[in-house]
Each structure stands twice: as structure tokens, then as C-alpha cells.
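Risk register update: the risk of archive-format incompatibility is retired. Evidence:
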Amino acid sequence: MTLKNINKKKYNRLINENSPYLLQHADNPVNWYPWGNQAFNKAKRENKPIFLSIGYSTCHWCHVMAHESFEDKNVAKILNDSFVSIKVDREERPYIDNIFMTVCQSLTGSGGWPLTIIMTPNKNPFFAGTYIPKESRLGQSGLLVILPKIINLWKNKKEIIQNSANQITQEIRKILKITSGQKLDESIINITFNRLLENFDEENGGFGNYPKFPIPHNIMFLLRYHKKIRNKMLLNMVEKTLIKMRLGGIYDQIGYGFHRYSTDNHWFLPHFEKMLYDQALLALAYIEAYQITKREFYKKTVEEILQYVEEELTSNEGGFYSSQDADSEGVEGKYYIWSYSELKKILSTSEFEIAVNIFNLKKSGNLKSNSPHMVNSKNILFLTKTLSESAIILKIPEKKLSQTVNEVIKKVHSARKLRSPPKTDDKIITSWNGLMVVAYAKAYQMFENEKYLKKCKKADEFFDKKMKMFDGGLFHTYRENKTNIEGNADDYAFMIWGLIELYYSTFQNRYLRKALTLNKYYINHFWDNENGGFFYTSDRADVVINRYKEIYDGALPSSNSVSLVNLIRLFRLTGNLDLEKKSIQMIKLFSNIVKKNPSAHTHFLMGIILAYSPNNKLVIIGEKDNPITKKMIEKVRKPFNPFTEAVLITGNNKKDGSFIIHKEDYKKINNKTTVYVCVNNTCKPPTNNVGKMIEYMS
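Archived output:
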């Protein structure tokens, strides 16, 4: 196919794609190809290097490079004449992104998006970078300098380039290879805590300097370690971080939900894009903090996050959209920031006085940025104190202050709706949706809001109808009724996690059976039978450079980290020893990597804590609507019990509880709801008494 002409406007091959990111580049003068054999065959046939550009639809610097270079006719001519140019949506093809990000980090010492790779027709890379300006500036070479040099080398010293590319490929294969070590012992947990403590910001919360990311799995790791050793210092670290983030500019004080990260160390100036996975994981962190502390501040934060997801990121079909852009009208953060005079016009005099105090407004603006892509002299709305603290300082009853602030938020939100909103990437990604199911399910378990349970069930039904392959596997993405990319390891791991939590929300056995069936498929197609662990891609996927295993817990927990926790939980729920053996094999396989940098693997270490902590397994036999059964379930769900697993057998049909090995050993006593509690594989006498059950568990 050649460039397509629609309404006298020229479009390249990306016009036939489904990804919002690729469609953003469909009218570029660059003759882009999507990832696929058509591009690679052309590169081989014409003996041209491949220019690979990887990004995503809500990436600010991806937009900048697109406007500067990919919309420029001079850059386009060079690329069209001498290269085969490929565009990849990193969210659509994370495997490709992960491989070439490893290349970039190996060659340059850093990475990010947009990711720029130049490689041979055989997909062997020899150049890597991130954002590259069109013209050279501030010591950085521009595309108009770099591309002609590469063309000259390709024409005159191709053999040198090919040899270099082959060497780089071999080195990347070595980097991706994982060597099994000894099984990790409990000491790694305390080592990880000390590393986090060294990196903890005592004033602002969070870890490290700027840019500062939320990293919810650090929070959840600390909460589990706190549960294990009862050290208040860990809880203080968690609370400081959660409170400071919620008060800061990283949180959208008007429309709710968290922005991607803070560009400073005190959570003030965010990078304004919003990602679905951040909402899911942060909701989980606040839910768990509420379970322990019962602070309404955390509950309200969860409710607000889920309200944002419902209003902005939920499809009519039941799935959840990926993200919202940082930019609107070409300006980063424009949708979210306000001048002093704008807010003064929107609010009454008394409301404005409160807003100035509560949200730290300044006449000259509180935002001072060096970025040419951001508006200065305006205000980011943020808090320095909770409303309870502000009520005392302002000498206003907290209830009255809360009512006024809510009215301020309502009016500003209505005014904001009149602005041009950031674009929403309406691509539905299986893995991120799995996390959202987890968050909604946990919120239902804690707060018993039926709306949250309906969200879970509707999402599950959507995936059954739209995201399942003919053989029971998962597709990775969905948009406009199209699915064409096979699922990756995180799609399975996160969705299995979601199904486990959906089971706990309903105690309907079909959800646990679905989790076990999906886990079996996952093992069959992703498990490394030789060394253990899950490959990121299935045994049917095309391989670029190497088939690798994901373990680093970055913005998201890795597929193997979540899978480790899933395997341990499913083993304890069912008694299937093969699942426990696989979890032990995983702990050995990744031990050397985790030891080198334990604080970069905190979700994996949640699995280690789970494996080594005193654990409870409960089998409850009774009808769901029985008051005693309900009370037992409540005592499992409501407290923070990360080391407890429970199953319910109702006896309604023969299949009920059939996934439990030795199900026949569990019977009602005195024809009443009965619970069997096993602590560390030692079973207590069965009891009908809720108090006795709690005593056994403690």
C-alpha cells in the first residue's frame, strides 16, 4: 500500500492502524510503517537501515518530537529516501519497547520516551536515543545532523555498522539472560526495608529526589512488613508518603485522580498525564492504609480516585481506558492550572478567600517552570494541610469548611469542563484492566459499595466477550471492537490477580475456577520448563533479540512478581503442590537479581514476605446469607490480613469447592456454619464460633 488520500489529505500506512498513538502520526509526511513483515521485507529488499520510533499517545515529549521533526518535510525526505521508518505504540507492543529500552539504557546509560532506535534490516540495533531535536542545540546533535552521518556510514562503512550491531545484539542477549541462584531467605526483607529507609524523604514522603514517582508497591511492601514485625516506623513512612501525595499538586484536587509523577521532590509540579495503572495501584495502597488505620482521609481518597476512573476512563462496554494526555491545546498542564483572576470570577468572595488559603493561590501564580511547553504565572491547586488541620488554623468548624471546599471544587470543575480537555487514549489494555478489577474488588470488600462490585463484574464480562482468544488465551489490547495482538505475561498475571480478588468479593466459585483455568493456560504457554519463571511472551510469539523474563518492579509491578504472589495464594487456596513448587523455583531463579537491588523488586518481595510469614488458611462451610457465615467473611475481609486465604463451600452443588484438594475432609459440625482454620499447615479443631476463629487466626 502507498500513501492513502482521504479528503485530499495524505495519510501514510498508519491510517489503517487501531492505536491512538499511531493514528496521531497517520498524517505525517514520514512514510511510516507499523511494526510487521511489510516494513522488514522492504528494508531487506532495498538494503536500508530501519528508523524505529517508540512512544505512546499521552507522552508529552513524543508530541514535541512529532511536531518538530516528524511533521517537518526536510526530516521526512531524509527518512523516506534513506530509511524504512517504523512507529510503535509502546503500550500496544510492550515487548518491543522493553527490548529496545534495554538497548538504549545499555548504550546511553539512560532511557525514556520517545525512544529512538536505528537498526539493520535484521533488527540488530546500532544507534539508540530518546528525544532528539530537529536542529542541534545545547550540545545535543539534532536529527538533521545525525541522520546524514548514519546514511554516509551505511553507504561507505556498512560492514563496520553490521559488526557493531551484531556485537550489541550479543551483549543484550547476555544482559537478558538470568542465572538461577540460591533460595532467598528472610534477611532480604529487612535489607530491603533499610534500603528504602536510606532513600526515604522524611520531610515530603516518598523515595529519592526528583523526579519523584508514587511507586505504590513500595507502600504495600512496607505495610506487609509492618504487619509482620509491628514496627511503627514503617507505618509512619507509609502515612507520610500517602498524605503528602494526596495534598500535593500530583493529585488533581478538582477532578481527582493522580498525575503520573512529580517533577520536584515535594509533589508540587506534576507531569500532568494520568495513567489507569496509577489509579488502580494507588487506590490499593490507600485501601490498605485505611484497613490498618481506619482514617477517613484514606477512604475519601479511594472514593475520589474511583470516581475519576468512572467519569473519565470507563468505557460503556465495561473496560477501562488507558490514559489521559498531559497536554491540551498543545500546552502541558493547561487544562489543570488557573490564574488568580480566573478563579476570582468563578467563586463568591467568601469561597475565593477559602480557596486562596486552602489551595495556596498567588496573584502572580505559584507555578514557575523553565519548560517552553508550559504556561507560567498560573496556579496549581495543592494543599499543605488536611482540612482537619486547616479548620483549626482558620477557626472554622470542619464540617462548614468541608462544605465550602466542596462547593469550590464543584464550581471550578464545572468551569474546567468548558475548556478543551486533554485527549483520552481509549485503548483498553488487559493488564491495566486487571489491576483496575483488583482495585474495585478490594474497595468493595472494604467499603461494601455495590457500585464497585458491579464495575468488577461488568469488566469481567467484557473480557469474556471481547478479549478472549479461541483457545482460552487473552488478547493484549482492544479498541473499536478490534483485537489483534496476543497477550503478554502481565496480561495474564494481573488478570489472574483480579479474578482472585473478584472471588473474595463474591465467594462465587466460578471466579476462582476462572483464575485457575487462566493460570493453567499461562503456565502452558509462558512457563520456562528448563529454568522456571515466566517468559514475557508466549511460546507462539515472534522473538526479537531474545525471549526474556520481566522482573523489575518499576512504574508497574513485573509479571513475574505478581505471578509469584498469585502462585502462593492459589496453592494455599487449593492445596495444589505443583503451584508451590513453581513459586519456590521462581524465588531461586530471580534471587541473584533481587539481591543486587532489592528495593527495585518490592512487589516480588511481597511474595517473599508472604512465603515466610505465619499464614492462615480458612475453609468456611455454610450458606452465604447465613448471619454467622457473613460475620466470618467480614472478619476475613475487613482487617488487613495479607497472609490469610479463605474459601467458602456452600454445598449447593457437587462442583462447589471442587478446586480444593481433599474437599471431602471438610464437613459441617452441629449442622451449623463451620470454619476450619489451619495455621502454618497445622489445623485447629473445626468451630462454629466466630470468636474462636479470630482466636485461631491471631
